[in-house]
Amino acid sequence: MDDLERELRDLSGWLETPDAPDVTAGVRVRLATPAPRWRRWRYSAAAVLVALVVAVLPPGRAALADAVAGLVRFAGIRIVTSTGPASPAATPSPLPSRRPVALDEARRAVRFPLRVPAKLGPPEQVQVADPDATGAHRVATLLYRGGALRVDAFDGRVDLLFLKRAVGPGVALAHVDGGLAVWVDGPHALTYVDRAGTVREETARLAASTLIWQEGDVAYRLEGALTRDEAVAIADSLD
Amino acid sequence: MAREATLDDEELVNRARHGDLTAYAALVAGHTASAHRTAVLLGAGPDAEDVIQEAFVKAYRKLSRYRGESSFRAWLLAIVANETRNLHRTRGRRDGLVLRAAAADPRSEVAGDVAVDTVLAGERRAALVRALRLLPVKDREVIVCRFFLDLSEDETVAMLGWPRGTVKSRTSRALAKLRGLLDPAEVRCG
């Protein structure tokens, strides 16, 4: 060890580190309460809030739908469960400015780490959508099985607390990587709320079963003809 | 360590994995000081408490992924480091290292030549801290791991998630940069 290394070790004792707080009680409370609390994110609240709000509305709860419409204005996705028959899935996406790109290019086109589920391997096609003024895209989509299976990754957080309240028939809670997730079993209409707050309806097709979850600063949505266990296994395999 | 460790980390991790929150609380209590120091040294500043609380909650939820390939401490500190980076990303700034005030130096009461030596040593430390602040983030992270947190090379590999070769080369490059930054200062003092 040379002098500089010795000096650095000596310096260690001189660095000001405040006394450690006791977080044991706080951590216990958090772990005993399954619903994530907003306080957790109080330091990220100051950042640009690109919250992905996912509201899952059972039929016959129109009043709630109206109440939700205000919340949804932020940004993100809204899902309305439907009892109607599923239409063919050959329609444009509600995502604005969507374009196909190579995986490498997609990684450069989004600000978040684009992860691929190990269980599915390399995607057949990759798309990015909803760019901001600097060209950073808000959504990246990985397509598999000729487009019948898709993973959307959104730059933003799902309001999981809100999600949990919205759970109704056809919608169940699940767990991905220890965190809360929502499983929508069966066809439902899909709405995307873009950066400007414009609600984009996807009227011509109904989404297949969908799993929604959050990891880090990225919200994910997995859609396809899957059972809940299959969907969770794919979600758990994100690299 | 001040902790009354009747159970070692491995046993506590096992119990916590099966939902034993008391065992996990013991792990939290045992590693709070080191997690907090890590967050502060990596620049979390006044948010260090939030960062470590978040890290402990995440660590509990990810316990099934911890396979004992590194020490629990190194695995936990990796999560703390990651949370601190997230914080920087959202906050857009990082708090630098802060040198303890000279008044806290027990040797500052002495007089004469020793006092002069003390002043010089203090200046040298301040120069070192200034130089550290100028280092790129990754260089600083590896210095913090190896010299301030006293992590072994293995633990540094686990904490930073870099290959061993990168840890080695980054350490020597960071030391070389530090020497380069300190040299002019030495010329001035000499």
From TrEMBL, chain A:
Superkingdom of the organism of origin: Bacteria
Keyword Membrane: yes
Keywords of the record: Membrane, Transmembrane, Transmembrane helix
Membrane-spanning segments: 40-57
Protein name per the record: DUF4367 domain-containing protein
Natural source organism: Micromonospora endolithica
Lineage, top ranks: Bacteria, Bacillati, Actinomycetota, Actinomycetes, Micromonosporales
Automatic annotation (TrEMBL), chain B:
GO biological process, one term: response to stress
One Pfam family cited in the UniProt record for this chain: Sigma70_r4_2
InterPro entries: RNA_pol_sigma-70-like, RNA_pol_sigma-70_dom, RNA_pol_sigma70_ECF_CS, RNA_pol_sigma70_r2, RNA_pol_sigma70_r4_t2, RNA_pol_sigma_r2, RNA_pol_sigma_r3/r4-like, WH-like_DNA-bd_sf
Keyword line: DNA-binding, Sigma factor, Transcription, Transcription regulation
Domain RNA polymerase sigma-70 region intervals: 41-94
GO terms for MF: DNA binding; sigma factor activity
Residues covered by the RNA polymerase sigma factor 70 region 4 type domain: 126-178
The family this protein is said to belong to: Belongs to the sigma-70 factor family. ECF subfamily.
UniProt xrefs under PANTHER family: RNA POLYMERASE ECF-TYPE SIGMA FACTO, RNA POLYMERASE SIGMA FACTOR
Name of the protein this chain belongs to: RNA polymerase sigma factor
Organism taxonomic ancestry: Bacteria, Bacillati, Actinomycetota, Actinomycetes, Micromonosporales
